[in-house]
Design goal:
Elements lengths: L1 E8 L8 E3 L1 E2 L13 E4 L18 E5 L4 E6 L3 E8 L4 H12 L4 E4 L16 E3 H10 L5 H8 L3 E4 L18 E4 L2 E10 L17 H12 L14 E8 L10 E2 L3 E4 L2
Parallel strand pairs: 9-10
Antiparallel strand pairs: 1-2, 1-10, 1-15, 3-14, 4-8, 5-6, 6-7, 11-12, 11-15, 12-13
Length: about 260
């Protein structure tokens, strides 16, 4: 039986995660609090790890109950400063503006957040076994660091590496699965950018990471997985959609919940 083992939300897109014991899901499919905020540069483009590698050097800690974020970076000052996400928005934007050397705006979307895949804005999901397999491909990278590189929302204890690839299909009927009282539909394997090839704390890029990943993914690709959904092999984890509208008062998923196939 598959079991949910970890829940991660990223309150500000591209910054550090918060690990939770339980969470609810919004009608859009996004986990409550995930990518609720995002930074935008002076050209109104989102500031993310793909475009701004220096963002990896920012350390952030969130208190979701108090709605605060603690920020520090060796590029500015080792001093940690605490900001209220709402009441100190101007001060917070000034901190990011100084860091990125341009005017930065912090925007909020409490309904759907700022997902990468607009067609499948639900939580991304991956198995612990997959992370452990990747750690064998890259012995210098720990499982915990791989979590920070690939930034999945949900992690489950499965039965073999890449078993999460069973959560989507090439047919018109999506694979439905349930965690707690929340029903999700698997959409597609998550397309990757340059971010996983970088050290998540420094932003330094390993020039061989992508080539090694693609080569090993080809060598270990499951015979039962839908190859036609892999335009290239640089894909990992599963994008999802919400299958039905949640009940905001009762729908919940918790660490320890079974991950059960419905179709």
């Amino acid at each position: 039986m598959w079991t949910l083992s970890r829940i991660a939300v990223y309150p500000i897109k591209s910054l550090d995660p918060v690990f939770l014991e339980q969470t609810k899901i919004r009608p859009s499919g996004a986990l409550v609090g995930d990518r609720q905020y995002a930074l935008f540069d002076q050209a109104e483009n989102v500031i993310n790890g793909k475009k701004y590698p220096d963002i990896h050097r920012i350390r952030s800690q969130f208190d979701l109950a108090q709605q605060t974020v603690s920020l520090s970076s060796p590029d500015t000052s080792p001093q940690t400063l605490v900001f209220h996400l709402i009441e100190q928005r101007t001060e917070l934007e000034n901190w990011f503006s100084e860091y990125f050397h341009q005017q930065v705006t912090l925007k909020e979307n409490s309904e759907s957040g700022f997902p990468d895949d607009l067609a499948a804005p639900g939580p991304t999901i991956i198995s612990t076994e997959t992370y452990e397999e990747l750690a064998r491909w890259f012995p210098e990278i720990t499982v915990d660091e791989l979590r920070l590189r690939f930034r999945a929302n949900l992690e489950f204890t499965g039965d073999f590496p890449f078993c999460e690839d069973r959560l989507y299909s090439t047919t018109d009927s999506p694979v439905l699965f349930q965690i707690g009282s929340i029903i999700l539909a698997g959409s597609n394997p998550c397309k990757r950018c340059v971010v996983p090839s970088r050290n998540p704390l420094t932003g330094d890029t390993d020039s061989k990471f992508m080539k090694t990943f693609i080569r090993k993914r080809k060598e270990t690709f499951p015979t039962w997985a839908p190859l036609e959904l892999f335009q290239n092999m640089y894909r990992l984890a599963v994008n999802t959609r919400l299958s039905r509208q949640p009940n905001e008062h009762s729908d919940m998923m918790r660490v320890g919940d079974p991950v059960e196939f419905l179709t």
